[in-house]
Each structure stands twice: as C-alpha cells, then as structure tokens.
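Example record

One chain of 123 residues, shown exactly as stored in the release files.
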Amino acid sequence: VQLQASGGGLVQAGGSLRLSCAASGHTDSVYVMGWFRQAPGKEREFVASISWSGSNTYYADSVKGRFTISRDSTVYLQMNSLKPEDTAVYYCAAARSYDLYYVTELSSEYESWGQGTEVTVSS
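Predicted structure tokens for this chain:
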C-alpha cells in the first residue's frame, strides 16, 4: 500500500492542525495505521495507532489527551493544544494485520510509510 500524508504547516503554540493520510494500492487488506514523528536531531518516535476496525487506539503519553487518531478511508491525526516540542516531520505508516482490533507502537511492525509532512509549532 502507498501512503500520502498531508496537512502539516506552521501554527502557534496552543493551536490545532489536522493531518491526513491517504492510502492507495492494496487497500483491501487489513491494516493497522500509525503516526510517527521525527524532530530535528532526534530519533523517530511513535505518536498514535488505530486498529483496522477503528475501535482501538493507542497514544504516546506525550500526546495523550491532545491528539486524536481516527479513520474512514483516510487516516487522520487531529492535533490540539500544540506545543513547540510537537515540532517534527510526521509520518503515517501501515502494518498488515490479521486482527481487526490490533494496535502497535512498534515501528518495526509497520511495512509501508508515507513521505512525511512537516509540522512547526512556534512559541
């Protein structure tokens, strides 16, 4: 499956952005979807994951209560109360699964990655 992330931009601290991830290709398979981010000079880190069914979600502690992942034919990441430390390139990713309710924070389990969309939060 091919992934295309969009929606990044420049926002002031406290503001909101919504990222989107559109999938094409073998979309008939069951996929866990996730968002990761990589800040300058830092390693990539997990942000959020959502099961194929959409009923299960999992968040990094740093974004819990501020970010919401959801999906229909597109996967979204609603980011509220943004902080300067949220500044990063955000990547969406897909992991094939046999479990409709599975979620995972492990980047090694994701086999398809989008190109990234940049989010900058100014103080």
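Notes: The first strand starts at residue 2 and ends at 6.
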